[in-house]
Amino acid sequence: MAIKRRMNGEERKQAIKEAARREFSMKGYYGASMRDIARAAQISESLIYQHFTNKEELYKEAYFYLDDQVDALCEFLGSLEPSTETLVKIIYSLSLMILTEVPGHSDDQKIFERLLTYSLLENADFAQATFHKYETDLLPIWNACYEKAYEAGDLHEQLVFPGNKLWFTHHLAMAIRILHMAGVKLFNYAGDESSLIDSMVTYVLRGTGLTDEAVKKYAHSEALNNLLNEIFGPKEPTEKNIRFLRY
Q1: Cα within 13 Å of Cα(52), Cβ side
Q2: Do 211 and 76 meet the contact criterion of CB atoms below 8 Å apart?
C-alpha cells in the first residue's frame, strides 16, 4: 500500500488557495466558510490559520491566479505594433477569451466568471482587481492602436471616448457570457455559435468606428480564431476550441 507523501508548507498553502477558489466560486465570499475550505483542501481548519490570518486575506490571495491569463493576453498584444490590425486583434481576442473555451484553461474560466458574478453582488474586491488590471495593462495598448487606426484613416469621426469603447467591448461579451451560464437555451440567435461570435465581433468593430473597408481588410475570422492558441500556448488549432464555454 502506497503511503501518501506529506505536503510541505508551500504545497499546503497552494492547496488551500485552490480549494478556496472553488468554494468562493460556488458559494460566494459570505457563503463559503473556513471550515468548508478546510474540508475541500482535506486539512484541518486550524492549519489554514497557519497560512492565512482570516478569510478576507485568503480571499484576496485566492483570486490572483487570474493574473496569468490577463498577463498573457496583455503580453501578446503588447508585443504587436500598434495598428488597426492590432486593434481588431484586441477585440477578437478579448471576446474569445470571455466567450469561448481557452485551450487548457476552461476550469479556471468557470471559476473566474462565478467569482466575478458573486463579487458584483457582495464583496467587490475581486471585480475591482480584475477591472483595474484591464485598465492599467490593456487600456494603454488599446489607446495606442486607436490613435494609429485614426491616423491611417480606418476610423470614422468619433463621438464616444476611445477608452469607453474598450469597456463597451468587454461588457457586451460579458453580458452574452452571463446569459449562457445557465447552460440552457434562453432565446434564439440565428446561426450557430461560431457565427454568433463572428457577428458580435463585427457588431463591435463597427461600433468602435472602423470603416467598412477596414473591417473587410482585417477581420478574417479564419485567421483570428487561432488567436487563443497563440496567446495561451502551443496547441493544434481545431474547430473544437472555438465554442462557448460550457458547464
Answers
A1: 22
A2: no
- Cβ–Cβ under 8 Å, residues 98 and 177: yes
Sign of the Cα torsion 74, 78, 82, 86 reads: negative
* CA–CA dist 206, 213 (Å, integer): 11
The lowest-confidence range among 48-52, 183-187, 195-199 is 183-187
At residue 125, the pLDDT reads 84
Name the band, by pLDDT with cuts 50, 70 and 90, for residue 180.
confident
pTM, whole model, 2 decimals? 0.83
Q: How many CA atoms lie within 13 A of 67 on its CB side?
A: 8
Start-end of H helices in 32-83: 34-41, 45-48, 55-62, 67-78
| 187-191, Cβ contacts within 8 angstroms, sequence gap of 24 or more | none
Give the C-alpha separation, 232 to 72, whole Å.
Answer: 7
Residues 15 and 11: their CA atoms lie apart, in Å, by: 6
Picking from 205, 200, 199, 204, the residue whose alpha carbon sits closest to that of residue 217 is 205
Residue 229: its pLDDT value, please?
Answer: 79
CB 201 within 8 A of CB 211: no
User: Mean pLDDT throughout 132-160?
Assistant: 93
Report in angstroms the alpha-carbon separations of 245 from 31, 34, 96. 25, 29, 10
